[in-house]
Amino acid sequence: MLESSTPLVEMTDISIAFGGIKAVDHASISLRPGEVVGLLGHNGAGKSTLIKILSGAYKRDAGDIRINGEPAVINNPRDAKAYGIETIYQQLAVADNVDAAANLFLGREMVTPLGTLDDAAMESRAREVMGRLNPNFRRFKEPVKALSGGQRQSVAIARAILFNARILIMDEPTAALGPQETAQVGELIKQLKADGIGIFLISHDIHDVFDLADRVVVMKNGQVVGQARTKDVTKDEVLGMIIMGKVPPGAQPGPGAIVG
Amino acid sequence: MADQHAISTPAHPSSFTQNPVQRFLIATEVDTRLLGMIGALAIIWVGFNIFSGGLFLTPRNLWNLSVQTASVAVMVTGMVLVIVTRNIDLSVGSILGVVGMVMGIMQTQILPVQLGLGLGHPLIWVLSLLVGLLVGVGIGGLQGAIIAYLRVPAFIVTLGGYLVWRGAAWWVTMGRTVAPMDPTFQLIGGGPAGSIGFTWSWLVAAAACCAIGLGLYLGRRQRRRFNFPQRPLWAELSLAILGCGATIGAVWVANAYPWPVRIAANYAEANGIPVPEGGLFISHGIAIPVLIALGVGLAMSFLSKRTRFGRYVYAMGGNPEAAELAGINTRWVTVKIFMLMGGLCAIAAAISSARLNAATNALGTLDELYVIAAAVIGGTSLAGGVGTIAGALLGAVVMQSLQSGMVLMGLDSPLQSIVVGAVLVFAVWLDTLYRRNKQ
Prior knowledge:
The complex is a heterodimer. Chain A is α/β, with parallel strands linked by helices.
């Protein structure tokens, strides 16, 4: 049913090299509205690098990016945001020394008619969004430094949904979280999916993403091993793709697949 | 939870503590660190007053102290932003030197002679100041661009700048001292004429008190609009009384310092005022450089707390990568910070050279170290992300108090340097302890 609509994101034949090392080698990946795509692979498989090209943190050496079927120019994080692409980074990219509201609105502050920061309005909006996401969150006045890993992650996620992202990239979104907070993030992903937002979930741990994702794409040594709909394959088969590059019958092989 | 918020305004956190001191501190929401600094300053002042035999806490000394602090105070407000973004500026003293020279040449040679305005033309001081500001902002922008776009560390760029601009200051006149300054320009430096006098000082005090009241009222209204916890009314009142009290006290001190007898007598003669028995009492009032420094302090506080630029500065200091990923143009912000720093150096240059009534190539020597020390004593962290304008201004007052206090005590110059250096290290150590305990 999803295959018929125009892909939200289409990245074709993307390559990037650092020094002599091909971090991403002719990788292609797509995402449709309301779809959750799990991007899997070992540490160093190139998944974070590939996705950082989409979020504007790296510039690709070759390949095309299309958003809604139109060629997109993404040279920096600002460009990516203009296309509705929001990223939640693995290393919790928040400014530690300012409070939650300041982080939520960083780079897009609300201002009064005089052009000064409208802190009260921002805090009020922050309370609203955080209330939906994490009702136990109370520490609005403190620098983010003082918060727990889960609270910081909820700030990062709230930041993305606050600006009506259409494409959400989550790089190991639950790596720093406890079980309860992980379940919360899972619920949130379902909620966002229902709103028609396309989500890339990046992880090296298949258990984090298998139940949430509609489709998985596996990378190894910078290349795409293959992709599959999660209902067509088992966890063990996907594990085989991650570890050995072996593509099961239910999956579509990519350039990095081991033949035979 | 949301329904509860809609029904009643949540209680202020101060209503949960019993200890009256703690309750007062939480209710007024004052920065305890700043309060500690004010306490330290009070100890220094009282201590010097005792050891100098009552010479320190006199209107005359406090007024002089305020004028002596002005130049460093202006520069330290910019240094806070520089250090908050994990940079440093070692060139401020040299920029001050070269800009002072440029302004001196402008008002003694280029404008009156080469452009034929004639000495004492009313436009001279404005044009000189303007050219000085342009040169300062230009130098800062150049250094900032090298730091931000060519990725040369700020330490190196401004260390180079330290030598380059000091050399340039020398080179402008081949080492000659430029004097005297334009009479109007001299007012920027203070002195009996460069002070606003009795009536205007009280008007400034009245305006400041009104502003304090208005600020508290607007803050309260804003909190009500969004249903945030309110400070208790008694806390707001104590804040208003403390703020206005400090303002009135400062102006009272400034007005208690009269013009020197000879100058007052000359003035009376020139204006046909009869001199009463025991001499004429004409108040200095607030000195113009002090007003400039206060204005700069207010403007910079506003910039750092209430504008996007300020927010970006602190976010960049906390996590440069996160700021970049949030879509902030961090390089351009860096350039703007250094341009601002250059502009502030130009203002400080005007104050210093006007006060000296001359531009010399040694003007501003060692100022970079005093400015950095004042910022650090004022709680700016060299690790980045932390520091306030108000704290840095207090730091500047502490530095200057130490120096003039030691002069009053008759301490030798080498001893003065030793004490100032030791106090700097001690202050930062205390601050480290404070931060560690707070976490």
